[in-house]
Recover the amino acids of this structure.
DNA sequence: TTGACAAGTGACCTTTCGTTCACTATAATA
DNA sequence: TATTATAGTGAACGAAAGGTCACTTGTCAA
């Protein structure tokens, strides 16, 4: 009936994989969550692995569109206070957006099993954020907002603590508010340390 | 024959769970890796879940003995250079010790499924290292090695980037050397920033 | 020497898994 | 209207999963 069943399967797979992992997910339950019977799935994907690959394709493409491209770089803030609020806006988005949360969880669970997941995990958890902030911090040095230093090192030192607290939100969602407060406190500590 | 089979099962389970996850591990293969047939396992553990619980008990106890207790706090270093080398010793140990690597991987894979794994994961990945370094940094402030600041915040800012690179080693072991270099570079950057 | 017990085997059980297939209902197309 | 492609059903499949059990073997204490 619905033309978008193929799409809905991908959504449901993201949901289920993120909670139970690939191995822990079974097709019966996945189909049932869509009001289908399991054989119906195979009209849209030839196997469980095909669903996984399609989902990964999707996640990789999404990452490239939204985080990998130069046009999505955040602007260089005009003040240290702007820098904090820009950080908090980004963090809020990444912690509240269910799709993004589930994507991180899936990558966490499958990073040792699937090579592409492994590579994307490194981008999501380590290099991505840092590469995003490197030019921002370089720009802030230009503007005289923070002291001159290695921008890549500063971006690494800035983003990895934030990333650790984002992981905490994924793991223990009830601590989200606390984690966000800690991120803001850390961000302020950072600009106290490096700001001029 | 061997009296320590129960122990060896736990070791093999850690190995297999860390590669394939709990759901992805099957008892036949686990037994085979020990030169047993699967029914032999059930002479020592009543179920797969019992193995999991015993392993988790072990990991929790090990963590409490080696990281949780006050007596295992690292000493306050006498110089900034000592601080760097102490850090590198600890990191090297935690990255090369196969048991510890596998423990982190298991916790990564099972943190969303098992509540106790979740709690231990937060300790391993976030609070543990920071709590270990808080008194060290406080002591360094006392000694006048680094500037006075919130020691807990500094410990957080110091340990989470290191933790992120340790995760990179777990995920992509071929990048271990690079990660260790980056940890040392970060450590030196840290003491340049806060040292006096 | 014998008896008891712990350790290990191999056959078997039930359940669940991913997958296939013949079939039906529906809706668009020729 | 007749045809055809699409989406979905339900029964069935073989493989693999976790687990049980009667049985054998080896060890050691009485």
């Amino acid at each position: 009936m619905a033309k978008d069943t193929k799409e809905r399967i991908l959504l449901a797979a993201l949901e289920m994989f993120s909670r139970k992992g690939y191995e822990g997910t079974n097709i019966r339950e996945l189909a049932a969550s869509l009001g289908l019977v399991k054989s119906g799935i195979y009209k849209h994907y030839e196997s469980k692995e095909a669903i996984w690959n399609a989902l990964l394709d999707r996640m990789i493409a999404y990452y490239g569109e939204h985080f990998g491209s130069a046009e999505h770089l955040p602007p260089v803030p005009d003040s240290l206070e702007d820098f904090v609020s820009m950080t908090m806006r980004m963090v809020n988005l990444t912690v509240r957006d269910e799709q993004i949360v589930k994507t991180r969880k899936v990558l966490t669970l499958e990073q040792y099993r699937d090579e592409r997941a492994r590579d994307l995990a490194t981008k999501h958890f380590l290099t991505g954020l840092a590469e995003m902030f490197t030019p921002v911090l370089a720009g802030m040095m230009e503007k005289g907002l923070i002291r001159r230093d290695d921008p890549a090192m500063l971006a690494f030192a800035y983003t990895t603590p934030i990333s650790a607290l984002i992981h905490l939100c994924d793991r223990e969602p009830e601590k989200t508010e606390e984690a966000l407060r800690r991120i803001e406190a850390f961000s302020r500590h950072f600009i106290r340390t490096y700001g001029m």
